[in-house]
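Request: Give me one sample?
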Amino acid sequence: MEKELIEGIAIIQRSKCKEKVLKSLNTSIKMPSKISKDTEISIHHVSRYLKQLKEKQLVICLNEDYKQGRLYQLTELGKEVLKYIDE
């Protein structure tokens, strides 16, 4: 198993909130406000988790240059991590 996948699984399994954020993105591209509503996690925390997930290449921001209305989606690595989390 590759190092990035192992790190991703470990990061998600250590935090239920990060897992909720990742799972929320499994179905579609979303803004942090929508993720916040879906997961019942404050927008502030969702934004922080998205930043951490992005650093580990589990999610990607599709419109990084926007100040508001940023859209996020899972990367292939993020989808792979979810497969192991759901087992």
